[in-house]
Amino acid sequence: MAMGLMSQLLLLASSLSRSNQFCDAGTSSKLLIKGGTVVNAHHQQVADVYVEDGIIVSIKSTIMVGDEVTVIDATGKFVMPGGTDPHTHLEFEFMGTETVDGFFGGQAAALAGGTTMHIDFVIPRKGSLTAGIEAYEKKARKSCMDYGFHIAITKWDETMSREMELMVKEKGTNSFKFFMAYKGALMINDEFLLEGFKKCKSLGALAMVHAENGDAVDEGQKKNYRTWNNCFICFYEPHQLEGEATARAIHLADFVNTPLYVVHVMSIDAMEEIAKARKSGQRVIGEPVASGLALDESWLWHPDFETAAKQVMSPPIRKRGHDKALQASLSTGVLVPFTTLQLVGTDRCAFNSTQKALGIDDFQKIPNGVNGIEERMHLVWDIMVESVQISVTDYVRLTSTNGSDADIIILNPNSSFEITAKSHHSKLDTNGKVEVTIAGGRVVWENNELKVAHGTGRYIKMPPFSYLSDGIDKKGCLLSKLPPSPSGESQIQHLKSF
């Protein structure tokens, strides 16, 4: 795959809103997928798959059906679970503008690329989690595929603590994201991060971090404000700052003894901190994103502002070498008995060229974010499976979840295609194509045609105390070994005097 074409992953056209790309959703309740190689995270076999009323009811070597059943021939192709993108920002108000994709358009793009479930980030409204999730519930009414919510925590007080409990018990969320970057906007300090981690543990929720040293990044931005020459981002967000913040978050999570999820891992530095923690037995999940696996920072040095600005995200795309290391961290082998990073997201946060141009005179005002919700499944296949870095079953493990719901893709490993801005959906030459996407038992993508409808998506509640919490207290907690702090004294203040 030519890297020049791969760079066009970051074309920000949102032309899925064109009406001629959508058809009425299919209504067949009975479906037979015949003769494909059925793959899950642990096994693969040639078999037929029978779906009825949105549920996979049978997988056998041969299944006979009547004329009322729609039959799809999958001979020579892979039949897999639909993809899950764990990191998206649809209809997200950020840096004075809003991402170009609404829930319907962004989800339709996802379905065209084989992703049938995504988890979006709810941002508080005026400091309120309740107001934030209500706003996102309204945005998501037009959804055409399954979705869930993470919740961002951007400050800390007793009200926030109580609202976190409400989100878990009444709204079906089980994950909270803490920003260690974006000083003056979303960033919280270590004292509040520690309090948030403690609350996550008590609720059985997963703590997530955007790991960068926000103070140092802010200082770097100010220093380099006058020196920008289209190679801006690599100066004020160096990879060492991502590694430092990742290590700090890991140590604080270990101190509290709570699981930790590090979003958009972009550097070797962060990856190595996660590997060290996992090797020691700490429960840390690392999430690389499609752009970090596929690209390097050379595009940030492009003399054309529009081309360079398309690549701007945070943490930034790194120098060549980080991409290869991130790829290797997803595979296992004799020398690497476990994967350092566990799943691939996108950090879908797409802005068009007009929006990116808000920063043409001040690089700090370029809206941070790239696309990828449609490209992720194809990119991971092309980069990781075609290069024999991972197996087909590993591919399912990295991109999908397993279940009995009929969210299925049919991928043709022998098909090559070019995605273009005109037909989109971005631009790259790639091997392996998702030819059919089935969501909830309905064919929603076939013959390069989308068949989706507003309001057919479902909100998926996620319970607390997942497998990551199982038995975690057996390890013991550094925090529990300290004597109780005096009444009214914060934990940080108490530690300083201990």
From TrEMBL:
Name of the top EC class for this enzyme: hydrolase
Cellular component aspect of the GO annotation: cytosol
Post-translational modification N6-carboxylysine, affected residues: K177
Listed InterPro entries: Amidohydro-rel (IPR006680), Hydantoinase/dihydroPyrase (IPR011778), Metal-dep_hydrolase_composite (IPR011059), Metal_Hydrolase (IPR032466), Metallo-dep_Hydrolases_sf (IPR050378)
Pfam families reported in the protein's UniProt record: Amidohydro_1 (PF01979)
Catalytic activity line of the entry: 5,6-dihydrouracil + H2O = 3-(carbamoylamino)propanoate + H(+)
The record's account of how the chain is modified after translation: Carbamylation allows a single lysine to coordinate two divalent metal cations.
Signal peptide bounds: 1-21
Catalytic activity, EC: 3.5.2.2
Keyword Signal annotated: yes
A single GO BP: pyrimidine nucleobase catabolic process
Cofactor: Zn(2+)
Keywords, alphabetical: Hydrolase, Metal-binding, Signal
Amidohydrolase-related domain: residues covered: 78-406
Molecular function terms from GO: dihydropyrimidinase activity; metal ion binding
Protein family (similarity comment): Belongs to the metallo-dependent hydrolases superfamily. Hydantoinase/dihydropyrimidinase family.
Listed name of the protein: dihydropyrimidinase
Originating organism: Glycine soja
